[in-house]
Design goal:
Helix content: 40-55%
Largest sheet: 9 strands, mixed
Order of helices and strands: EEEHEHEHEHEHEHEHHH
Number of domains: 1
Distance between the termini: 29 Å
CATH topology: Rossmann fold
Strand order of the largest sheet: 2-1-5-4-6-3-7-8-9
Bound molecules: adenosine-5'-triphosphate, magnesium ion
Strand content: 15-25%
CATH class: Alpha Beta
Number of helices: 9
Length: about 250
């Protein structure tokens, strides 16, 4: 497992110099007031490759920091390490997540314990593609899994099956990420997926800005502030936050 601090490399276990920030989004309870304890976890998983888990993990992490829900950490449990690579590019920029870690799914529970002990308030985990068996332990450790899908019927069906299976271990939310769709179709897809149980966390429209921003270690929240893409992310974090508070 690898941990890093803002701007400097750390060794495993040496993650303690975090200054917790306890600021609620205006008019809302602090994330730390939830029943589940002082650190919330959002794990993003998909049943199909390329659904957008990594893109959404980076954007949720930065938007949570912007909303005053930090300090945030990111944990990369997906093969390829794309989230950690983004985090390394992000270091030193505004609203960079405090810690980044990469570890296999089986080591996520330990990483979450370390993040909790270090005063992290929100940990965003990129699980990548998996099935009910490979993700069960990780879901139990996280307590909340956001299942990501495009609006294709086949992909949605697989996502719903994954969500149903993981609902034994964790609170389930669905995100429709419209890499190739937009508009009404996404809303219908989100309604259909959550109708079988689980929360409708939000939908994100197709925007080339996501890929452009991420290659530079950024997000659309700063590179395309005020865009529809940025608004989708703000709304998504607002909904995920509400789901976390509702338990
Ligand atoms: N809403 C979107 N609009 C446009 N492009 C998107 C959108 N979401 C993701 N992408 C792009 O689609 C590609 C796949 O996204 P991403 O890497 O986040 O998916 P992933 O689920 O992490 O994939 P993998 O299974 O390979 O880990 C990336 O190039 C990303 O920039
Ligand atoms: Mg990925």
């Amino acid at each position: 497992m690898r941990y890093f601090l803002d701007g400097e490399t750390s060794t495993e276990g040496n993650v303690s110099n975090v200054v917790p920030i306890r600021r609620a989004a205006a008019g809302q309870p602090a994330l730390t007031d939830r029943r589940g304890g002082p650190m919330a976890v959002v794990a993003l998983a998909a049943a199909a490759p390329g659904a957008g888990c990594t893109m959404l993990a980076t954007h949720v992490a930065v938007q949570a920091q912007l909303a005053g829900d930090g300090p945030v950490a990111v944990v990369d449990a997906a093969p390829g390490g794309a989230l950690l690579h983004w985090w390394e590019r992000r270091r030193g920029k505004l609203q960079a997540p405090r810690f980044g870690a990469a570890c296999p799914p089986g080591a996520v529970a330990g990483a979450l314990d370390d993040m909790r002990a270090a005063g992290i308030r929100l940990c965003v985990v990129d699980c990548g593609v998996g099935d009910a068996d490979s993700l069960a332990g990780l879901a139990a450790a996280a307590g909340m899994v956001a299942v990501v899908s495009d609006a294709h019927a086949a992909e949605m069906g697989e996502a719903m099956a994954l969500g149903r299976a993981l609902s034994r271990q964790a609170t389930i939310a669905y995100i429709v990420n419209g890499r190739s769709h937009s508009g009404e179709k996404l809303g219908n897809a989100l309604a259909a997926m959550s109708a079988g149980g689980g929360w409708a966390a939000g939908m994100v429209q197709h925007a080339d800005a996501f890929a452009v921003a991420m290659t530079a270690g950024r997000t659309v929240l700063e590179s395309h502030a005020g865009s529809d893409a940025a608004r989708d992310i703000v709304e998504l974090w607002g909904n995920l936050r509400g789901i976390l508070l509702a338990g």
